[in-house]
Amino acid sequence: MTDKKAILVIGAGDATGGAIAQRFAREGYIACMTRRNVEKLQPLVEQIQSAGGEAHAFGSDARKEEEMVALVNKIETEIAPIEVAVFNIGANVRFGIAETTARVYYKVWEMACFAGFLMGRETAKAMLPRGRGTIIFTGATASLRGREGFAAFAGAKHGLRALAQSMARELWPKGIHVAHPVIDGAIDTEFIRTNFPERYALKDREGIVDPAHIADLYWHLHNQPRDAWTHETEVRPWLESW
Q1: Which single residue of 10, 115, 195, 234 has CA 20 to 30 Å from 157?
Q2: pLDDT in tens, 154-186
Q3: How far apart are CA 217 and CA 223, in angstroms?
Q4: What's the rounded Cα separation, in Å, for the pair 221 and 183?
Q5: pTM exceeds 0.90, yes or no
Q6: What one-character DSSP code corresponds to residue 239?
Q7: Main-chain dihedrals φ then ψ at residue 12, nearest 5 degrees
């Protein structure tokens, strides 16, 4: 039997998803990362490999059932058992309700909710025979409350939260830890730096979330003892208003 273990990160970018993949790779996990444009993952793969870890990049559309089924099967049969699966796709768009087209609403739901269902279902099917594993869905402020201009995003994130709750109640008794950490605050990303410079300026005061610290939380969630599992936790900078 192999003692190799893989982590699958759906939506591995240059911030949170990448930091999670790097954190687990440092602990000996094989980092399997996916996004629609596989070329954008190459710098992350090289960073992990240069640090002595093993990483694989896949180009796939998490909204497509056949692609998610094939991805999980490929990792399970050719690389290593998936011990940890993280759903980290972002679909944060802002439109007034009158300007929110059906296409926008549906696409955001596909990306931020339906794709999470596909990942959760397929990785659970792989983990159930082993009776162990961790599935983490990244939540956001919109998971808890809908703000003006974010009807599509809030609807999708509320749906993802409900999915995580249902899966936790079903899978915890079968040895699979399902968690939904809510990141309620701006994260140190290029998106925040470019679009919200006044918020990004708080970085020097530890006023925005460091992706590496989110990754530490995910590592902790995966290693919690079974008698003290966490399902939902909220993370926000000390300057963030509730």
Answers
A1: 195
A2: 999 999 999 999 999 999 999 999 999 999 888
A3: 10
A4: 14
A5: yes
A6: T
A7: -90, 105
Q: Mention every residue, 6+ apart, whose C-beta is less than 8 A from residue 79.
A: 4, 6, 30, 32, 56
Q: Which two tokens stand for residue 239?
A: 């300057």
Question: Residue 232 has which token pair?
Answer: 């939902």
75 token code pair: 């990792």
Sketch out the chain's domains with CATH numbers. Answer: 6-235 (3.40.50.720)
Strands (E) located in the chain = 6-10, 30-35, 55-59, 82-87, 133-137, 139-140, 176-183, 232-235
Structure tokens at 84: 């940890």
Res 2 pLDDT > 70: no
| C-alpha to C-alpha distance for 89 and 92, rounded to whole angstroms | 9
The rounded mean pLDDT for the chain is 93
For 104-153, how does the pLDDT look when each residue is reduced to its tens digit (9 = 90+)?
A: 999 999 999 999 999 999 999 999 999 999 999 999 988 988 888 889 99
Distance CA 208, CA 186 (A): 5
pLDDT at residue 241 above 80? Answer: no
The residue behind tokens 């399970």 is: 76
What's the token pair of residue 59? 């180009």
Alpha carbons 217 and 23: distance in angstroms, whole number: 10
